[in-house]
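Worked example 2:
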Amino acid sequence: MGDQRTDCAIETNGKANHVRLSKPPEAQPSDKLVVTTPIQFLSSAHRWQGLQRRIGLTGGIASGKSSVGHYLEQQGLPVLDADIYAHEALAPGSPGAEAVIQRYGPQVEASLHTSDEAAASEMHRIDRRALGQIVFNNPAERQWLEQLIHPVVRARFNQEIDREPQASAIVLMIPLLFEAGLEALCSEIWVVQCTPTQQLTRLCQRDGLDQEAALARVRAQWPMREKCQHADLVLDNSGAPERWKAQIAEQLHWSS
């Protein structure tokens, strides 16, 4: 499998999209909540400079990004979700799904429930759990998959951002914001964090994983410490939600 190559062109508006994949720094195990002074990962010249405020919302897996994103949406902010676009990239019949099936074969193929037998014979549905078992235990395969998906995600963000020209602020919820090199889409970056113990517990409960599988997913991302160091705002989700809600209110100048 390691020497196998799959050619798949993902194009948007007739042009191939490319994404920079950053090598994650080595993890520094700790069970303590990271308290650090945020620093700018990219200079301001490389961030979004327009009038619209574009908030990149990220953090470790199972740190609570979705809860924060849902809250911001309830407050009236448009929230664009990278996970939705990543799922679209591997939708049945998509070039991404076909490339995955070509590379890994039946082991990642799930049955497609449809009454149209002709369509079912030409469309493949990805078994995401089986695919996850491969990529979260093999960095080279994970990188291959990211190179397939990230250009699609970037293109979809650009499309959806263009649909919100009147919004004074929008939220770009991107779990792999740093890893995918998508900082330039944002005017600022918020990182949601919790303790490592909370992260593992939430991940195991949410996805039905054992600790070993959960750790593999955590280690596939940048360490929480590194993400916090590259943030403009670190949202503390280790306690009551009121804590990070107060942080957001202060950051967005909302009255209490």
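The chain has two domains: 25-78+167-256, 84-163. The beta strands are 11-12, 15-16, 53-59, 79-81, 109-110, 125-126, 169-173, 188-193, 233-236.
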